[in-house]
Design a protein that fits this description.
Radius of gyration: 22 Å
Structural class: alpha+beta
Strand content: 25-35%
Strand order of the largest sheet: 4-3-6-7-8-9-5
Shape: globular
Distance between the termini: 78 Å
Largest sheet: 7 strands, antiparallel
Order of helices and strands: EEHEEHEEEEEHHEEHEHEEEEH
Amino acid sequence: MLSLGIITFWQYEKNYDHLVLIQDREQVLEVVNTSTPVKLEVYSNRWGKTIISESSVIRDVWDIADEMSKSNPLQKSQNAYDSDKISGTIYYLNNKKSAFNLGSYLKIGDIIYGNPKDKPYVDQLKNYINEILCSPENLSNLINERNKVTVVDSNNNIQKCGRDDKTSICNKILKCSKIHGNEALEKAINTKGKVIYHIKTYLEKESNSSPNTKETSYAIINIDVYENGYIVIQDFSNEVVTAIYMKGDLVEVCKNISKTGI
């Protein structure tokens, strides 16, 4: 006997506000399998790459995407997407996969999500994914020979970092741990103490000007170093700047680099 299944699911070609009635159990399972993401591989030119497999995190990403697609009918387009900044691959329960890009819009396969009115959701999704990408490993990779790095003390004295200085900072960052959960975050906010140093990393950005114009702009990744063993990371190139907390003591290494100390 065929069973009657009533199922609500997320997929990027669905029509919203419709109840899907499926009278075949095999068909129900097929729909679920082809619309259930189980892993995201994410890559950013700035932060590097990561793999997201936690179901709760994937659900959060989907919920933000849902807000965009509900307010704007999905359209297939080959040229409506530009300025790719984050890219990756979505893997589904049935072992199928699709590519995605996140820049001015969200694009999954050939389907575009959002319009200018959806920009807050695009920014929210970018910040959420960038926060995941900002791991101690990826953060330390930014402190390299190619990027300019400075240490700034509380009196605004600036010391440019050399190769050995960068290595010392990287080694300390790799020992940091990211803070998760509201309780741990609240504790960090309340007990971090004073900012003692700032570590600023300057990442050269691609210029939109003509090739003959010598204009160089930078994305600045700022690390606030607090007295009580916390650091706070902010990407000042984002329109909406969020603070990412880690546990780790960089005061001593910054003191050794800074000519003035504290």
